Amino acid sequence: MSKPACTQDNKYVSLLHDLSYEAANMCVQCGYCLPACPTYESMGNEAHSPRGRINLVKMAAEGKIDLQQDLAEPIDLCLGCRACEVACPVNVPYGQIYEAAREVITLQQKEEQKKPSAGEKVRDQVLNNLFPHQKRLRLLGNATWLYQKTGVNKVAQKMKLVNKVSEPMGQFEKILPPVESPLKRYKFGDVFPAHGTKKMTVAFFPGCIMDAVMSKINRQTIELLQSSGCEVFIPKGQNCCGALHAHQGIMDEAKVLAKSNIEAFEASGADYFINNAGGCGAMLREYDHLFKGDAEWHERAKAFVEKTRDVTEVLFELGPLPFKKEWDGIITYQDSCHLRNVQGVAEQPRELLRSVPGATFVEMEGSDRCCASGGIYNLIHFDESMKILDDKMVKAKETKAQTIVTTNPGCLLQMKLGVERSGLENARALHLVEVLAEACDIQ
């Protein structure tokens, strides 16, 4: 498709045209995506709907509007949940359009040295100096364990010390689950034998947040896989999946991280590559798109994607699990957007919950709708995120569930905050792995 003449003098407009225009042109502006979009529902503005954003991308790619003044904010306020892709009757690849716009906007801001906001500075520090560094993340996790173990967190919360730095961070620090002792941490390179007859060998991806502050859920994941007949290997050399970088338009760093993961898991020789975080899994399953146009890495990425699975898929495939305890009460489920909308995994988590002895599973209205965690969206756009979350908790209350289950660390923290904000005193939010582990008497 030839470019409009107006794009020729602006390299950013030209790049956006190359990366997104053909995909954006697929949109017929039918509006089927509108009811699926949480930001359109909460903000009531066409610019914050999928078709509105796509139209803005098209106009920007034609040089008709300014990338920074007219496109940056609508793209920044998108949760990236990709529910619109599922609703779209003509299969518009919204994720590709969204990330292309992010990439070009970020590139222009960087190269033209536009002054970043305070939130953008924090974002850049975290993405560049923390997430790509496994040892730093573990050090942070161990420090958090000590912070909680010594009771310093209670003093800090009473004095609202974290809130003075960042109100959103203060809110989430308060509901952060207890971090497991560093002495119980698994090691990269470890191999955990299958219990009973070995059915397959799997390589486990522990992730970033999960590895740093939710390592207990990772350990329980390993033990559930073992109890299902899996030999579990944790490859050395793996790194952050790159999802947060890609969603913020930092594509070069996302590719560097992806290459290290592909190399590490290729060497494992495992039957499947397993993760337990919907957002990470979605990124891992789209590594082939990340390397489109790169002949060598695209083929290697395709092979990687073919072996990538969410833990619920494997546990369901190998089931039933060796349950030992009866569950008491009602359970409901909140989909991880990226597990459902990108990976296409929706029924396996529900079937696993229905299989728990004694549990009563009740479907929540709008469980397939985003909870507004959105990676770091709830830190950068806290008020917008809380508006969507509060509505979600109204639906959760209607189920009368004592346990709200999800399958992604960001969603889990969001639901924990939602429980506190809504005053659901007798309810708790858990990762699905925690529920299955408890029912199998895995501590």
From TrEMBL:
The keyword Electron transport applies. GO terms for molecular function: 4 iron, 4 sulfur cluster binding; glycolate dehydrogenase activity; metal ion binding. Its EC number is 1.1.99.14. Its cofactor is [4Fe-4S] cluster. This is Glycolate oxidase iron-sulfur subunit. It is an enzyme of class 1 (oxidoreductase). InterPro entries: 4Fe4S_Fe-S-bd (IPR017896), 4Fe4S_Fe_S_CS (IPR017900), Cys_rich_dom (IPR004017), Glc_ox_4Fe-4S (IPR012257), Helical_ferredxn (IPR009051). Binds 2 [4Fe-4S] clusters. Pfam families: CCG (PF02754), Fer4_8 (PF13183). Keywords: 4Fe-4S, Electron transport, Iron, Iron-sulfur, Metal-binding, Repeat, Transport. The keyword Plastid does not apply. Component of a complex that catalyzes the oxidation of glycolate to glyoxylate. Residues 17-48, 68-98 form the 4Fe-4S ferredoxin-type domain. It comes from Siminovitchia acidinfaciens. PANTHER family: GLYCOLATE OXIDASE IRON-SULFUR SUBUNIT. It comes from the Bacteria. It catalyses: glycolate + A = glyoxylate + AH2; (R)-lactate + A = pyruvate + AH2.
